[in-house]
Every structure is written in C-alpha cells, then in structure tokens.
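Notes, Module 5: Reading structure tokens.

Key idea: the token line is not a picture. It is a compressed description, and you learn to read it the same way you learned to read a sequence, by spotting repeated patterns. We will look at two proteins. The first is printed below with its tokens.
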Amino acid sequence: MPNPFVSQGVFNKVRASVKFTQHPELNITAAYLTQDAIDIQFQGDAGVLLPTMTGGAPSPNPYQMINVQIHLVRSQGMAQLFKNQIETDTFLGEAKIFSDTTTLGDFVIRSATLRSAGDVSFAGRDPAFLISVFGIYDVNKDMWDL
C-alpha cells in the first residue's frame, strides 16, 4: 500500500505566467488570465521506437512542437496588445511558460509564434480572449553530446 502521508504539494494559481524575451510588453501574469489560465499541448513524439526484424530501435527526436493556449481577460488592455501584435507581426521569439507549481520546471519555447485568436463571444458571459502560441520545445538534450 502506498504511503498515505506523502505530501501532495501545493498549487499556486497566481504563479502561472508567460514571459516573452523579445516582447516584455506582452508578458502575462495571473491578473490578465481567466480561470482557465494557460494550457499546453505537446504535438508529435519526443521519441519513437522504429520496428526492426527482431524488436525495435529507439530514435529520439530533438524537439516537439508545442501549442500554448492563453486565456486572457478580454476587458483588459492586454487583450488589445495581443490583437495588435497579431495584426503587426506574429513572430514572438523565445517564450517561457511558468506552471502553477514550483515542483514542475518551466517550459522554454523557441520560435514562439502567435498562431491564432480563438472564438470570441460578445454576449457578456465569457470574459476570455483565447490566444494560441505555437513553438518548438527542445527535448532529448543528451543526443547532442557527440
């Protein structure tokens, strides 16, 4: 039986944030987020097992594509800043995603690019302005040790 006294940790809802190295005016803290905050989805495999005649051979990938969904509060100026950025230049450069707990490390994304803005409702019941940022998340760093 597992130890029932193992600490479950703490989640800090206001820790979740995004920092853009080349665009600090777009840095996002909890005050700019709806309750849905930030979601990340990994796309593609970090590694694959290639079939052989007698088994499989591992083949690590050097990166994964990552999609970051940022649920901004539409009634704040930050939403307009992102709308302006989409209309001007979607390339953002490096981004750093901070999770809602200190035990899970941060995620650094290369070539962060504004992918799209989500559906927007003007019915006064949904505060979100959903922004999707796409980029490259480096994995398998040991493969570069040649």
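Here is the second protein, with the sequence above and the tokens below, as before.
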Amino acid sequence: MTSPEMIVAGIPIQANWQQLWEEVPKAWGSLFARAAEFEKLSDGPFVDVSLGRSDVAYLQLVGFPLRHGVRVPDGLKAMHIPVQRLLHHRHVGDVKGIAASFGAMEAWAEQHALPPSEFKLDFGYTLAGDETAHDLYIGLRPETPWRHV
C-alpha cells in the first residue's frame, strides 16, 4: 500500500535499545499530560513513529498526525512524512506483542522480496492505555526520507 503524506507532531526520542523501554513511556506520559491541548489539532490516533537508527541510537517520535495548516504546538517537534510504500498489519492483543508482530512483518517482507526499511508507524495508542488493536506499518525500500518541519 501507499501512505498519504502527513505531518506528525510529538516528542522525539533518541536512545539505545535498552533506554527506549524507559524513554518511550516517559514521552507518552508527557504527551498525554497535554492531550486536551491537541484534541482539535489532531488528524488521527496517537502514533509511535520509528524514524531510523544510527550506530548507537534509535530515533523515534511519539505524537499524533497534525491537521493540515495547523501550527505545531509549543514544546513539540514535527516531522514531515512523505508518501511511502508500506506493509500493513493489524495487531490485535497486548502492546507487549507489538515488537513480535513487527518482527513477523519484516520476515514476511523479506520472504516476498520486499526489503523493509527502518521506518515504522504504530497507530492506536490511547490516553487510557486500553487499546486492543494497533495498525502497524513498515516502510519498504526504496524509502522516501522524512524531514524536520
């Protein structure tokens, strides 16, 4: 499938694999504490965006798709995500199984000669943490680069 372009506003995280398990929940907490400010600005559910990694760190953004023409709220960063070729899977169940679902998606893509990229989208987070399903996407190469807004 091909995704539409979007602007995602949120809190960036740059951390190694072990630190992500601490830093991502902290970022969600900070974002959710301000959720009432974002209600009229959002163009979809909350999303965790994996933007890639360097030699030592992963770069992620937890946030929400920003409505067209809306100013980025103070204290948040925004990323422009251009049209991408994506593989989609609907994960049903506990969030603890999302990493395994992404792994299965990557394996499937490689078996079908669709080389996956580091780019990932995970839509479905809620303020209450009671979500039962997430829409997962993995970028397929060649990847269209994202950029800061």
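Summary for the second protein:
- Helices lie at 17-33, 35-38, 98-111.
- The two ends are 25 Å apart (CA to CA).
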